[in-house]
Amino acid sequence: MSRETPLLTDKKLWQAMRSSMALPVAFSPMEFAPWLLTDGGVKENLPVDLAAELGATSALVVDVSPPMPPLKHDNFMHIGLRALDIIGQESNDWTTKIKVDIIQPNVAKINTLDFNKLDEAIAAGYKAGYDYLKQHDMSKKG
Length: 142
Known about the structure:
By secondary structure, the protein is α+β, with helices and mostly antiparallel strands. It has four helices and four strands, in the order αββαβαβα.
């Protein structure tokens, strides 16, 4: 592992998505020789600058970062996740000049390890996406 950021332009979307979810300590890394990839959110949570490098002139991103409440837990996993959240939120400060629209589902009550709340997370994402389309007059008519 290194700080290098490979562009997985020759991989399937699911492979790139899975490698971006390889959270150190919790989920195994993905191997694409010569790389062993872990969560890109640690270094670059929403890789808008990389999209710009590949020629994008605009980006529509979904930010599912929950607001950070006061840390009440003192176990290893919660402290580690908080550190990653802080680093990830700082990485959202883009330097690119491309147009960025952000969809932010209401996931304030869902944390990274709440796998039992998957249906709630999907519903929040669907609602946020629908609201975005409606606000921008892009929703399906009729």
